[in-house]
Amino acid sequence: MVYPREHECMRELRLLTQQHPWGFMGSSPDQMQFFSMLLKMTGAKTTLEVGVFTGYSLLATALALPDDGKVVALDKSREWYDLGRPFIEKAGVAHKVDFRAGDGIAVLDRMLLAGDGEENGEGKFDFAYVDADKQRYAAYHERVLRLVRVGGVVAYDNTLWGGSVAMPRDTPGSSDHDRVVRDIFVEFNAAVAADDRVEACLLPIADGVTLCRRVK
Fold first, then answer.
1. Per-residue pLDDT for the chain (216 aa), expressed as one digit of tens each?
2. Rounded CA gap, 191 and 210, in Å?
3. Does the record's keyword annotation contain Translocase (predicted)?
4. Starting at the edge strand that comes first in sequence, how are the strands of the sheet with 209-214 ordered?
5. How many domains does the chain have?
């Protein structure tokens, strides 16, 4: 159901990403098909992406947006983004992409500053996707939620963390790193569920996707 409908440039980028030493960080095709449909259903025109890697999800977003749409994409590594840039250009959607290299928190803070010349400030985005360093999800949430308009949607990746959030912390086979990240997501998921600024839903797709609709 997914691969036959995958855009040719996305397929090429996915295959390239799989050869990368950090290829496991790439988003899954079924997840991106879902995001593509979600963006079209909600009529999103301006989106934000925190964590780009080689740009598979970025390309999916750019393809889903109308021709005058825009996705502002943040990542600490321009080198990784440059691997995927040729496929974005080949797909004819490079004009929709505004890539900004740098620390995610710092770039978001600049976007929130009044009077700094930014055209993308508070309440300007219809949709945001966060797939970056997990230790800072709570910090991203506070900033991204302000950047997304009321009624807009924020998606957080990896919130099931291999299902570990539903398992005992000392489950055999868990690494020290997995236990640390598992604890972060248990706390993050609980905080989002209790956040009265959003309606939240945790979807068991890929490695878990938490959708938040901003309500105030």
1. 557 788 999 999 999 998 887 767 778 899 999 999 999 999 999 999 999 999 999 999 999 999 999 999 999 989 999 999 999 999 999 999 999 999 999 999 999 986 445 566 789 999 999 999 999 999 999 999 999 999 999 999 999 999 999 888 878 877 888 899 999 999 999 999 999 999 999 999 999 999 999 999
2. 12
3. no
4. 97-101, 70-75, 46-50, 125-130, 148-157, 209-214, 198-203
5. 1
State the DSSP string of 193-212. HH-TTEEEEEE-STT-EEEE
Give, in order, the Cα–Cα distances in Å from 162 to each of 74, 85, 212.
Answer: 25, 30, 20
Cβ neighbours of 117 (radius 10 Å): 7
The CATH number linked to 19 is: 3.40.50.150
**What DSSP letter does each residue of 144-156 carry, written as one string?**
HHHHEEEEEEEEE
Domain that holds residue 113: 3-214
**pTM of this prediction?**
0.92
Q: Are 132 and 50 in contact (CB under 8 A)?
A: yes
Pairing of strands 70-75, 148-157: unpaired
Is the separation of the CB atoms in 212 and 145 below 8 Å? yes
